[in-house]
Amino acid sequence: MSGKTWIWIGERVIDKTILHYDQHARRYQSQYDSVAAADVHAEWVGVLERLQPGYALDVGAGSGRDAAWLDRIGWRVTAAEPSPALRELGRQRTGSTVQWCDARLPGLEGLAAPAREYDLILLSAVWMHLKPEHRPRAFARLDGILSRQGVLIITLRFGAPDPDRPMYAVSAQEVERLAHACGRSFHALSEGLAPDRLRRSEVRWQTVCVASEGWNPP
Prior knowledge:
By secondary structure, the protein is an alpha/beta fold. It has a single domain, classed as 3-Layer(aba) Sandwich (Rossmann fold). It has eight helices and ten strands. The strands form two sheets. Strands 3, 4, 5, 6, 7, 8, 9 and 10 form an eight-stranded mixed beta sheet that branches. The chain starts with 5 loop residues before the first strand and ends in a 6-residue tail after the last strand.
């Protein structure tokens, strides 16, 4: 295991990224909550408006901002967050109406399965933390729990990596290849890269959507 990604605490090996989020949970909570979810996700709100609220999974749910937003508009939300501190802050925010669990990609072990497959899966600022060699397994796992008519939203981060939070290069083309391999359609929901909502000049974002074959974005 690489020392750049994992560290030892006593007899336990801990993911460096999760440990970083755990140690700085309140700072990230304040940062995330400084921008409304509907503003952060403006590029795919039109997609959301076309969907009938059902079961939603927020992967890497962080402070619970997005989970709470989806819950308010009628979705039955499961929030997966591997940082214990962020998960507790998120649970305090959403209350019992959102189901929280300790699960992370690529395998999402620990995910509490819903009564049926998810109709919406959101990966906001998560994909860049996955090593490229783990992404096919992660995508196959997501495909396996997404309903055939469901929608997967992924926000892709472009810009300088943060040494405290290991990040890896992303591309829309990679997600498109993975989508097609699973028999899904792929859609880039923005032309070019959008500016960062937290006003970090070195960071840009692109939102992509994976859905059933023949599905067209609004």
